[in-house]
Amino acid sequence: MKNSKISLAGYSIGYFISPHGFGHAARASAVMAAIHDINHSIRFEIFTTIPEWFFLQSLSGPFTYHSFLTDIGMVQETPLREDLTETLRELNDFLPYDGSKIESLSREVSSAKCRLIICDISPMGIAVAQTSNIPSVLIENFTWDWIYENYVSDNFPVNQHIQYLREIFNSVNYHIQAEPVCQYRNADLTTAPISRRVRVSPQQMRQRLGIPDGVKVVLITMGGIPEEYKFLTQLKHQNNIYFIIPGGSQSMQVIDNLVLLPHHSDFFHPDIVNACDAVVGKLGYSTLAEIYHAGVPYGYIPRSTFKESEVLEAFVNHQMNGCSISESQFRDGSWTSFLPEILSLPGIKRNDPNGAAEAAQFVCKVLSIKPP
User: Fold this and answer.
1) At what angle do helices 308-319 and 285-294 cross, to 10 degrees?
2) Is the pTM of this model over 0.70?
3) Is the pLDDT of residue 227 over 90?
4) Could you tell me the residue ranges of all domains in the chain?
């Protein structure tokens, strides 16, 4: 099938997105933008509690935002630590799904004339699609049943939730896995890492941020989850290195060699990554994917208790240039002694496609097939 023959005007696609960090929203936004590249008139009905501004910044095509809790995922105590007690409490309140809510959502997607529902990685969307009698697509590099297995104990008795979610995940019509994949299954498509596309050149981005020519630039990011940084004074002693720190201030400030940005700024995160000589931060999917396509070195902080982290770390070690930083080294600022090593790692020129385009082409092919 040739993309030029696809006629998708008037189509709506429901998108159910997990609010666990910004990573799932970033991946979903990349796929939606790639679908808009094929046909800009497709409207998305986005269901999530990720703030609407994130999608306004990421998408240029039409969408309607529905603030709705679609998923629990893991409740975070800090960007690097999960709160199992609160996660269990919220899972017990949330699962199994309230049938009246699924029916209400089904009526909503039907009235919006959705022809398909995509899930990243909220299985609620699959349940709504089944009730609405429309196809569903799951895009993932892990599913929650796989994550929860790692925590099962007397204090975290979630076996019934694991089985419930697994049955829903397994009932999806179409399945896309995005590298780095945590558990390979019978997927219809496996893509390269999915990330939002860069919009401006590194030079333009540095100029907008007020960074002078001829200096090294390092981004510090915790993946959209607020964090208090106690090592900022130490960074000021790093000669000829500028540090960009999203969430470092309530408003944009340039103080010596520190570019402090608010949690929600006007600067597009993939453009910031692409303008840097290295990135230091939490090991998470969307950050990894953006760094992968930018080809810059990654000083990554693994999450010792999160099952996905081991897979992501192996991917960095085999497919990227990076250096591991422990949580304690990050918090006390001793990681700055690794900066010469991280900045000496070479960049990588990428020729492989962005997985977002691969996923978008698959979705458009599904849309050309009439639902059973």
Assistant:
1) 10
2) yes
3) no
4) 3-196+355-367, 202-344
Half-sphere exposure of 74 (CA within 13 A, CB side): 28
Burial of residue 210 (number of CB atoms within 10 Å: 0-12, 13-18, 19+)? exposed
Look up the CATH superfamily of 3-196+355-367: Glycogen Phosphorylase B; (3.40.50.2000)
Residue 149: partners with Cβ closer than 8 Å, 6 or more residues away: 162, 307
Apex 325 CA angle, 322 and 329, nearest 5: 155
pLDDT tens column, 193-215: 999 999 999 999 999 999 999 99
pLDDT tens sequence across 152-205: 999 999 999 999 999 999 999 999 999 999 999 999 999 999 999 999 999 999
Averaged pLDDT, 291-302: 97
225 three-class SS: coil
Q: 335: how many CB neighbours lie within 10 A of its CB? A: 22
CATH superfamily name and code, 202-344 = Glycogen Phosphorylase B; (3.40.50.2000)
Could you report the per-residue pLDDT of 307-352, keeping only the tens digit for each?
A: 999 999 999 999 999 999 999 999 999 999 999 999 999 999 998 8
Average pLDDT, the chain: 93
The answer to whether the Cα torsion of 135, 140, 142, 147 is positive or negative is negative
233 CB-near residues (< 8 Å, 6+ apart): none
Compute and round to an integer the Cα radius of gyration of the chain.
Answer: 21
| 67 touches 49 (CB < 8 A) | yes
Q: Which of 222, 90, 197 is nearest to 148 (CA)?
A: 90
Q: Is 333 helix (H, G, I), strand (E, B) or coil?
A: coil
Pair of tokens at residue 275: 């303008």
Local confidence band at 143 (pLDDT 50, 70, 90 cut-offs): very high
Q: Give the pair of three-digit tokens for residue 100.
A: 């009246």
User: Given the structure tokens 């696809």, which residue do they identify?
Assistant: 6
Which residues contact residue 341 at a Cβ distance below 8 angstroms, ignoring those fewer than 6 apart? 323
List beta partners, residue 15: 46, 118
DSSP structure string for 34-99: HHHHH-TT-EEEEEESS-HHHHHHH--S-EEEEE--------EEETTEE-HHHHHHHHHHH-SPPH
- Of the chain, the end-to-end C-alpha distance in Å amounts to 20
25/41 Cα distance (integer angstroms): 21
